[in-house]
Design goal:
heterodimer; A: alpha+beta; Uridine Diphospho-n-acetylenolpyruvylglucosamine Reductase, domain 3; Enolase-like, domain 1; 3 domains; four-stranded antiparallel β-sheet; B: alpha+beta; Ubiquitin-like (UB roll); DNA polymerase, domain 1; 2 domains; 6 helices; about 35% helix
Chain lengths: ~280, ~160
């Protein structure tokens, strides 16, 4: 996704951010202090925040840059599964052998995220914390039901993706908390698909699906205020039944170019393309 | 309001230290403070790719990075990469194939193309298109740009 379709209010023909203060956190402890200051906002990769500053859709008083916090960058295999630090970039996720073997869905999603220069800076944590309903990782998080690890100065809180996304750009992150990592269970069979007007644009509709011995979990993006788990369709045995059930899962709002019925139809198209891969015996 | 932060970065091999307002993005810093006007300013919200520069060896959007975030970083622009000769073959091929008309997108296009040449051995035409898909050109229709990049690939890189 990119910000291509957001209407920009230009001032004098150019887009300049309002004035704000900036602090680079040297440790997590320092970051927890800084984010408690009035008007503070966390800056990670900045690939969504900086355009919204340039367009003056956001006007923080203080940007707390957590980009230098090495503990938030690691990708490792832990007891809880594959742990990906919040600051891992899209490009790093695409290249990671651990991601390829434990959660290939994420690597499959990366080529759909904007363009190479943006993937070099944008981060997993930034995308999850922003919770754009048209973004790729939130739908992946829901399909994999990953655990979101939130830290504050007292410790950490672990939230399943199924309850993390609360609404449009709204999550379960509380004041004083930083999204530190996400932990993904190992699921090797997965499909990621999107329909876009041009490569790198916001998806009209997208699908993140996984399957293992316990069944399928198929999530959609671009179909509401949050990513949506198609729980009825995921349970069905045949594609026909799943396509019919999808109408119970999704009630996509129309956008400028596509009616609700069109979006539901396109979601069914993606479901049919993903179905065989997700239905092979385990 | 004065929020300036002392920032040190290496631009085209030269170390520079400046007090920078946090609101200034990297490409404005390069153009206005250092006079490096080869990196262009198009959309200023990450869509057009005209401001593409290299930070620590990776291409980024110069309008989606604050200059203060580049503290301690190595930045390479079209000026430095032209002077070093790194882009010579691509620049010659763009010239020969008429892969530019107004030239506004060309610096960013060259950096995106060189990024592909460095990261992939023998990219296909489709992969070339994918890699430059974040760099808009409103003159050429892209055919000549893809032809030029393809020619450099087929004649060996570097």
């Amino acid at each position: 996704m990119t910000f291509g379709i957001l209407a920009a209010k230009t001032r004098g023909g150019s887009l300049k951010a309002p004035s704000f203060a900036y602090a680079r956190a040297k440790s997590l402890a320092e970051a927890f202090d800084l984010i408690e200051r009035p008007g503070a906002k966390i800056l990670a990769g900045g690939q969504s925040l900086i355009p919204s500053l340039n367009m003056r859709l956001a006007s923080p008083e203080l940007l707390v840059d957590i980009g230098g916090l090495a503990p938030l960058k690691a990708i490792s295999v832990e007891k809880g599964g594959l742990r990906i630090g919040a600051l891992a970039t899209h490009a790093e996720i695409q290249r990671s052998e651990l991601v390829a073997s434990h959660a290939p869905l994420l690597a499959q999603a990366v080529p759909h995220i904007a363009h190479p220069a943006i993937r070099n800076r944008g981060t997993l944590g930034g995308s999850l914390a922003l919770a754009d309903p048209a973004a790729e990782y939130p739908a992946c998080a829901l399909a994999l039901n990953c655990t979101i690890v939130l830290q504050n100065r007292k410790g950490e809180r672990r939230v399943p993706a199924s309850t993390f996304f609360k609404g449009l750009f709204d999550t379960d992150i509380r004041p004083g908390e930083i999204l530190a990592a996400a932990e993904f269970p190992r699921v090797e069979r997965s499909v990621f698909l999107e329909l876009t007007r041009r490569h790198g644009d916001y998806a009209i509709v997208g699908l993140a699906g996984v399957a293992d011995a316990s069944g399928k979990r198929i999530a959609f993006l671009g179909v509401g205020a949050t990513p949506v788990l198609a729980s009825h369709a995921s349970k069905e045995k045949s594609l026909d039944a799943a396509e019919r059930a999808l109408a119970k899962d999704l009630n996509p709002p129309a956008d400028l170019y596509h009616s609700s019925a069109t979006k539901l139809h396109l979601a069914k198209v993606l479901l049919s393309r993903a179905w065989n891969t997700l239905s092979k015996p385990h | 309001m004065e929020h300036a932060v002392e920032t040190t970065l290496t631009v085209n091999g030269q170390k520079v230290t400046r007090r920078i307002e946090p609101r200034m993005h990297l490409v404005d810093f390069l153009r206005e403070e250092l006079g490096l006007v080869g990196s262009h300013l198009g959309c200023e919200h990450g869509v057009c790719g005209a401001c593409t520069v290299r930070v620590n060896g990776q291409i980024v959007r110069g309008c989606l990075m604050l200059a203060v975030q580049a503290d301690g970083c190595t930045v390479d622009t079209i000026e430095g990469l032209s002077d070093s000769g790194e882009l010579f073959k691509l620049q010659r091929a763009f010239h020969e194939h008429n892969a530019l008309q107004c030239g506004f997108c060309t610096p960013g296009m060259l950096l995106a193309a060189q990024d592909l040449l460095l990261s992939k051995k023998a990219p296909t035409r489709e992969e070339i298109r994918e890699h430059i898909s974040g760099n808009y050109c409103r003159c050429t229709g892209y055919q000549a740009i893809v032809d030029a990049i393809e020619e450099v690939i087929s004649h060996g890189q570097g």
